[in-house]
Every structure is written in structure tokens, then in C-alpha cells.
Input
Amino acid sequence: MENQTGPTELTATDANRRWRLLGMSALLIACIVGACSHVTEPITTSDQSATDAVSTDDASDPMLSVDTLLPAPEDFALTRIGSEDFPIPPHAKYLEGIRICIDPGHGGDAHKHGYKRGPTGVREAEMNLRVAQYLRDLLVHVGAEVKLTREGDNDLSLADRAKVADDWDADLFISCHHNATNNTEANRTTVWYHGTVDDRPDNLDLARHLCEGLFDSLQIPQLTGIPLKSDQLMYESGFGVLRAANKTAALCETSFYTNPEEEQRLRDPQYNLREAYGMFMGLARYAAGGLPTASIKPADDESPSQRAPRTLVFQLDDGLRSRNAWGSDRSMILKDSIAVRIDGERVPHEFSADTYELNITIPDRIESGEHNATVQFENMFKNANTTPNFAITVD
Ligand SMILES: [Zn+2]
Output
């Protein structure tokens, strides 16, 4: 979606003008189909065909057909995992115990004429779900815990999708999509993160690994120079589902179903498994580097006299030390990567490389009451911590 006009780069002025026009059309189209908060790809052939949505009961109309993928047995992925085509690398064992919420985009939209469909009517919601299910099969195979936001062809709101990840206390949240554009030749992989590169480095880690896994697995010849995209390129406030996500999150637009050849590949369960396998391999590589976390150390861990007023203690975990490998008694946290903010403003901290405790004395300028604290750091694999935001009460 990053480039509506195909491979030609636009000048900034052209792009701005074009985005304004596209933005207006997008709003119109999105509102006509009643999906203002729902589209990640506002200007698509399928969205546009939705503007002439006519209620018809013609079951032979490919733009209204319900099952558009080639049929596959339920155990399709399970019987292929570990085969020559889909080997499981040893380091995938580090996915064990990681909680991953997978969000198959869209659903429940087959009655909307041509809505998010390829040239012959293959429906994005179906391919998203199948890829998500195959990714689950792969992840569960190595001991990860997985929850899907939807199991069938039903819709749920963008906020509800992110809430599934929150309520379940997922470590990672991955939204699975496929892309669309008016240029039928376009076919590229993009992975989207929320906001700016400084907001959540953990989102970039997830996005980068998913993207690299998809590159390796799918080998799609077309490339965009910058395959990691901010969702603010599409909307000022980003994608609804990523904006609502609190957990480490990314949204994959694996390939373009508006490309006729790619659309036919996307019907094929073997290709859907290859997509899922790419994401899986990216996640395995990510997990091998450890997923660091920070947690607030409760004051009752110590006698009250040891904890001075207006101080906070965070316990850092590099995501690696628990492996008890040779070298795990050394610090694997990059000291200079540590940043602590209260309500977005940097505050000083003291870090112990032995205990991994992070001590903060809250500056006088911070008034008593509720505040947001952010703790960010990187481990030796340059993986950023997955739980950077904390609600704190200052006495
Ligand atoms: Zn989508």
C-alpha cells in the first residue's frame, strides 16, 4: 500500500497532493462500505468495487462467493511441519513458552460485493485466517502458546482484536494481512509498525524479524526500498489495530492479492504454509536473541526503611540469563541503551549490572499522582524489552 502508483517514486509535492486526493477518496469509500475504522488499505480495487455494492443473491457471482481458497485437509500444516520443505531449526526451541496472539485481518465480509478480493474473487479474510492457523500450528509445534483473535469467518472490531492480546497477556501481537492496490503488477512484502521509530523499539524488532523471515521464505522478486513501514504513512493516527495494541505488535502485509498471479498462489495451501513458515522462521530468530522485559519491583520486597520516598525500582531481565549458559553471569544488557521516562520526559537512573536492578529517584518537578513510566533497554542481541510502559503512582 505504500505506493499506490507502482514503482515510480513521487516527489514530495506530488505525493502530498496525491495523498490529499487519495485521502478524500479513501474516506468516502471507507464510509460508503461502513468500514471507516477497518481498512488498512484505503484505496484498492476491491474497496472501489465495494462502492457499487449491490445486494444480490447470485451465488455464482465470484465477487460474492464464500469459500475462495483451494480446499485443504485440517491437518495440512501438521503433516508437513518438519518435512524437507518446512524444517524446524534447533533455535526455534526458544519460542517455547512465548505467548503469541495472532490476528487474522477482516472476516465476516463475504456479503460485501467484491470487498477485499483479488481479480477472480479470492478473499483476503480467508487467506489471512489460513495463514494465521498454519502459523499457530508451527508455533505450537515448538511449545509456544498461541491465541487467534478469530477462529472463523467473523468480524470483530480493531480495538477488540488488540484487547484479546491484552486480556490474554500475550508477549507478541501479530496482525496478518495481504495487500491491495490499483497497480495489478505490484507484489511486495511490507511489515508495519505503529508510530515513529522511537516509540516502541520492540515493535521494530518484531516487524524486522517477520519481514526477514518472509523475504527468505517467499523470495518475492519485487522489493520496496523500505519494507518496514510506519502506519502513519497511511493515516495520521496509524492503523486502528496497531494503535490499540499495548503488546509488542506488528502488521504483516505479506503480498498483494490484487496481482493476478499472486492471487492464484494465495489460494494454494502449500503457499499459505510457506507464508506462515516465513513468519515462523522470523519469530524463531527473534526469540533466539531473547525477549527482554522490565517489571516494577514492589516496595514490600524490602523493609520500608530501605526504600526512600519518591523512588522506583525496576527489575530488568535480558531474556537470556535464565538459559544458564556459559557467560550468563556477565551483563548482557547494553548499559547505554537504558532510558527511563516519566510522562515522556527522560529521568536519571542507576543500573546495577550485577542485580539488573534499575533505581530511579523521581525528580521534584513530577507532582504527586498518577503518571506513565517508560523503561527501555536492549540486550546483547539488540532486542528491546517487550513491556516498556507502566502506570505509576507518585506519593
Ligand atoms: Zn487487510
Notes: The pocket of zinc ion is lined by residues 40-41, 105-106, 124, 177 (CB under 6 Å). Residues 1-56 have pLDDT under 50 and may be disordered. The first helix runs from residue 12 to 32.
